[in-house]
Amino acid sequence: MKVVVQPSRPQLWRRIPPVYVILVVITVVAWILVELYGRGSFFGKENIANILQRSVSLGIVSVGQTFTILAGSLDLSVANMISVSAVMSSYIMQGDPSRVPFAIATVVLIGVIVGLVNGLLITQLRVNPLISTLGTGLLLQGILSASFRNFAGSVPEEFQVLAYGSIGPISYSVLMFIIIASIGVFILRKTRFGAHLYAVGGSQEVSRLSGLRTTRVLLGAHVIASLTAVITGIYLASRLGAGAPWVGRDGVYDLESIAVVVIGGTALAGGRGGVMGTVAGVLIFAILDSMFNLLGVGSYLKQVLRGLIIIAAVASYSIRTKEEVS
Amino acid sequence: MAKLQHEVPQANAWRTVVTAIGQIFRWVPPIYFIFAAIMIGIGLTNENFFTHYRNTLNLLLQAAPLAVLAAGQLFVIISGGFDLSVGSIITFVVLGSSIMLSGNPEATYWVIAMMLGIGIVVGLFNGAVTHYLKVPSIITTLGMMLTIKGAALLWSGGAPRGSLPAAFRVFGRDRMDKFLIWERFPHAVLILAGIGIVATLLLHRTNFGKQVYAVGDNPRAAALAGINVPLVRMICFALSGLFAAIAGVLLGGFSGVSTQVGDGYELRAITAVVLGGARLLGGRGGMPEAIMGAITLQALFSLLNNLGLPQPLREAVQAVILISAAAYAVLRERRKA
What is this model's ipTM? Predict the structure, then answer.
């Protein structure tokens, strides 16, 4: 299939998602508040590193979540997939460096299977994505928690480099996030699959009638989301030294990744948005977190404010849409 | 269909029976068959269950909070939205009431009235933000879920404080000596029956109910037909908030004070509603079926309990049943169409 119509290339500044305005505003506000009332300096080296570090785990899985939401679907099983990946990788490794490749291959395989199951439930049995991924998530969590009670196995010290090592000022984990986000941007902007993903998200029926294989596109989106969850799980295992069956659920990665993607300007109905917005959404969450910490805000008040900020951030630009929202 | 009718004149009795059974499967909502199957399972695993109606009443008592919650959630789901904030409304009601009532139990009714009011206000806020600020309801109510849970924990300092007086716990825990022919009849079941009847009439027998379906099916068309879409939506969310607060009163009475009392209830309520055949994103669903869905889910929990499965595996089985029920509902709808 040849692309006939070349859309005029918009200027660079027009391609930056509007959420970056919110990002800048929140950064400035956080900076002023921290300088006035906080302890420590907001733009200090330590705090910047801290903010980036916080972004990694939520960021990687949110890149994958962007794909499912763009396709008009969503994935609630990612949190449980993260736990499965963290536990299985550290359980297989058992502190032995030679088993690292096998462990990674296994969890990647599990991730692909879970992604395919999610996609097939949605496309073949036509179960609503919310229900089917909630179901697979519960299923994964049930099997995992029945088999493992606590931290299982351990990752070898060499493997912990992934979480704690760095090249110069940039840590490997942040680098990994940047690479994964770039791959996401590349897939969406430059590949045929990316173009099809937007089409399917815009209207599945129209895409199907135009001859797109919508099933494959949705399957692809769900496999990508599962794989990013797998990577997040491996990263968490590397950071904690071992995986536990609650790491995913404790991080609320399912709902937070959706929130971050929507804050980043991707439409929940699909078809509009992108990974760059999601990255901004993740940074907003991390900046707010570090601001609350530096200001000494208690964890419960933090939760209250976080909920309100999620609503306000999405409202700040959703208010301009003319279409019906439900 | 046409072919069947053609054959009818020479049909024998056997064929008539088969067709009749086919018709029953077509028109009776599948939730009743799922419920029957689970009850048979309970009867097989616990032979004493059907020897006394007390066991059935106990099941209904346990199911009451979830059923009330599902009734509220159904309004929101039919109108096309989601309400994820209900679980934290439960937690807020339980923690807040126990703080306000420790030491002065005589204020019970005022506090309950206040909590129901808070539920309505939260619902109205959810509806207003969703409609006027165009924030998708899944995000609005997710934000409110964090905020309300945070507020409840902030208020109580992160740990359960105080205790609920007997007057408060009557609704969720205690029983009447005699109600009609039943002895030791739980108050909660009566409350559930009352709410179920009111909600069913409201959804299926009033103009407002018809408007809810219209808004969920196509909000634009509904607006063009002269329906006050924002009002209908806000009432749906307000009902969900109100019912969540009632569920909180019941659950606080039943299980006492804890900071995790409402956790997971939002997804369980949505599961119950979907089991009852409602369609996510709006336009379809029935109130008796949704309440049946909640009771079925509770029956399923107690069946899995009877089977002696550990808690995690129970969740896994619940997941399989959820997916199968949803897939079956889709299949059935396609066959009808």
Answer: 0.84
Interface contact B137-A146, CB threshold 8 A: no
Q: B130 lies in a domain?
A: yes
Residue B295 belongs to a domain: yes
Chain A residues 230-289 with a CB less than 8 Å from chain B: 255, 258-259, 262, 268
> Nearest C-alpha of chain A: how many angstroms from B50?
30
Q: Which two tokens stand for residue A89?
A: 């990788």
Q: Which residues of B touch A298 (CB under 8 A)?
A: 154
* Residue B134 lies inside a defined structural domain of this protein: yes
Please check whether residue B143 touches A, CB under 8 A: yes
Instruction: Supply the CATH number for residue B139's domain.
Output: 1.10.3470
**Under a CB-based contact definition with an 8 Å cutoff, are residues B90 and B261 in contact?**
yes
- Domain residue limits at B159: 59-336
Q: Is residue B20 part of a domain?
A: no
Write down the pLDDT at residue A14.
Answer: 66
Q: In degrees rounded to 5, what are phi and psi of residue A251?
A: -80, -5
**Nearest-by-Cβ selection for A142 from B148, B270, B313:** B313
Is CATH 1.10.3470 the right assignment for the domain spanning A40-315?
yes
Residues in chain A: 326
Alpha helices (H) in A241-319, listed in sequence order: 247-250, 253-263, 275-295, 299-318
The mean pLDDT value for A234-250 works out to: 91
User: Is the pLDDT reported for residue B20 higher than 90?
Assistant: no
Interface contact flag, B150 A304, Cβ < 8 Å: yes
- Chain B (65-84) residues lying within 8 Å, Cβ to Cβ, of chain A: 79-81, 84
Domain boundaries, chain A: 40-315
* 3-state DSSP assignment of residue A72: coil
Query: Mind telling me how many Å the CA of B70 is from chain A's nearest CA?
Result: 16
Beta strands in chain A (DSSP E): 166-167, 170-171
Q: Do A311 and B280 touch (CB under 8 A)?
A: no
B55-60, long-range: CB < 8 A, 24+ apart: B57/B182, B57/B184, B57/B185, B57/B186, B57/B189, B58/B186, B59/B295, B59/B298, B59/B299, B59/B302, B60/B186, B60/B188, B60/B189, B60/B192, B60/B295
pLDDT tens digit sequence for B202-254: 999 999 999 999 999 999 999 999 999 999 999 999 999 999 999 999 999 99
Cβ atoms of B240 and B266 within 8 Å: the answer is no
Q: How many domains are there within chain B?
A: 1
Decide: A243 and A89 in contact? Cβ < 8 Å: yes
CA-CA distance, A163 to A168, in Å (whole number)?
Answer: 15
